[in-house]
Design brief:
- Helix content is 33%, strand content 25%.
- The chain has 410 residues and is α/β, with parallel strands linked by helices.
- It has two domains: 14-189, 3-Layer(aba) Sandwich (Rossmann fold), CATH 3.40.50.1950; 197-406, Rossmann fold.
- The strands form seven sheets. An eight-stranded mixed beta sheet has the order 15-14-11-16-19-20-22-23, with helices on both faces. A six-stranded parallel beta sheet has the order 5-4-3-6-7-8, with helices on both faces. The chain has a two-stranded antiparallel sheet with strand order 1-2.
- The protein is elongated.
- The protein starts with a strand and ends with a helix.
- The structure holds ligand PMT.
- Ligand PMT binds at residues 203, 219-223, 261, 280-284, 286, 310, 312-314, 329-332, 344, 356, 358, 364-366.
């Protein structure tokens, strides 16, 4: 983020603040003051109900920008959306976020300005929910929050305590300093990979046995797709090479669909010619059936499967490493995770290795979440807690960026 053409001073982080209509909306004024004090430029969007708690004039005075607002049910005029509120912002922060706004975001509704901007914005999103504890504890709210988290939103959880409604419990807006910290971190991330080409592999490979059968695995592509989406949200140009999956590729990412390890190998070597960051998150088959049968093998014929080794794409990419490149591998293990992952990192020569236990449910293959251990550039093991794969992706990129900075582009 620079101040402008020819001026390489960093410009102020631009934060688009959505304020929805809970009693905590009165804190929006103090939140804007805190963000501005930290050097951010803030523009505000008020929902109709929020105006009952904080006036547009107050926020316009504190932000120095007109406050955008539309009623529910009145889609914003195209010009409002295209005055590049979406393009202007480095980060979208919603504080407080009512249960209603969480539901609209999670279900992709877009019939007012705030929900339209959320749907159109492809940068980092920070959400600070605040509501009555009973609403916060409701399974629907929890499901909406989980969906937003899995799509990469940073959730700043509400605090426990007494609320204005007299109830006690979790539901009070998080401390402003926590929201400010997450908002500034998100804004900083939003262009940290500007102009960097990132190549990511994802999903399984299918190795044909005959025209009808193949050897495959349970990779859904979620982990690699999350890395691609997170890199894109940081301004990277992303090439996503993926095996056969059913999930939808992230917006704005160049995709290359492959089936076999040999096809993935070719596509990854091609992408690595210009990529500064290469992440092998795909579950590539180590072997493939020798000479797949031309015709469907009849069940009456006795047959056995002879397997031949596939090339080790990650090791090949390391061997062909270009100056300035950062190469990250993954390790799918079912036992002795750290030892095996450290040995794998050593053997393959990648800069970082993300190890995950794929033996259990709820993490690894197909799951929305992942519990990983990072083997860092010094070979040290750093266990991370179970978290949505998008947050694993954000943390991984946060570890990749300093390595990039140490290796100037060729
Ligand atoms: O896709 P999901 O459902 O979200 O599941 C995510 C995941 C479990 C697939 C992912 O987190 C993961 O662990 N990916 C790597 C799986 C794998 O192949 O691990 P491995 O230990 O067999 O391979 C080690 C590394 O070498 C990996 O970076 C792999 O991409 C790479 N490899 C493996 C074989 C091969 N022939 N060439 C390779 O480059």
């Amino acid at each position: 983020m620079t101040a402008g053409p020819g001026d390489d001073r960093p410009r102020a982080p631009r934060i688009l603040l959505g304020v929805s209509g809970g009693i905590a909306a009165y804190k929006a004024a103090e939140l804007v003051r805190a963000l501005v004090r930290e050097g951010a430029e803030v523009r505000a969007i008020l929902t109709r109900r929020a105006e009952a708690f904080v006036t547009p004039l107050t926020l316009a005075t504190l932000t120095g920008h007109p406050v955008e607002r539309t009623e529910f049910g009145e889609p914003p005029s195209p010009s409002i959306l295209h005055i590049d509120l979406v393009r202007w912002a480095d980060a979208l922060v919603v504080a407080p976020a009512t249960g209603n706004v969480l539901a609209r975001f999670a279900r992709g509704l877009a019939d007012d300005l705030l929900s339209t901007v959320y749907l159109a914005f492809d940068g980092p999103v920070v959400v600070a929910p605040a509501m009555n504890p009973r609403m916060w504890d409701h399974p629907e709210t929890r499901e909406n929050v989980a969906r937003l988290g899995h799509r990469g939103a940073v959730i700043v959880p509400p605090e426990e305590g007494f609320l204005a409604c007299g109830d006690e419990g979790a539901g009070r807006l998080a401390p402003l300093e926590a929201i400010v910290a997450e908002a500034l971190a998100a804004a900083r991330r939003s262009s940290s990979l500007d102009g960097v080409h990132v190549a990511v592999s994802a999903g399984p490979t299918f190795e044909p046995i005959d025209p009808a059968r193949f050897v495959g695995n349970r990779s859904s592509g979620r982990m690699g797709f999350a890395i691609a989406a997170a890199a894109r949200a940081r301004g990277a140009r992303v090439t996503l090479v993926h095996g056969p999956v059913t999930i939808t590729p992230p917006w704005g990412v160049e995709t290359v669909a492959v089936r076999t390890a040999l096809e993935m190998r070719e596509a990854m070597h091609e992408a690595a010619r210009t990529a500064r960051v290469v992440v092998m998150a795909a579950a590539v088959a180590d072997h493939r059936p020798a000479g797949p049968a031309e015709r469907k093998i009849s069940r009456k014929e006795p047959w056995s499967l002879e397997l031949v080794p596939n090339p080790d794409i990650l090791a090949e990419l390391v061997a062909a490493r270009r100056p300035g490149q950062v190469i990250v591998g993954f390790a799918a293990e079912t036992h002795d995770l750290v030892e095996r992952a450290k040995a794998k990192k050593q053997r393959k020569g990648c800069d970082l290795l993300v190890a995950n236990d794929v033996s259990g449910a709820g993490s690894g293959f197909e799951a929305d979440d992942n519990r990983v251990t990072l083997i860092d550039e010094q070979g040290r093991a750093e266990p991370w807690p179970l978290m949505p794969k998008r947050q694993v992706a954000e943390r991984l990129l946060d570890r990749i960026e300093p390595l990039l900075a140490e290796r100037p582009a060729p």
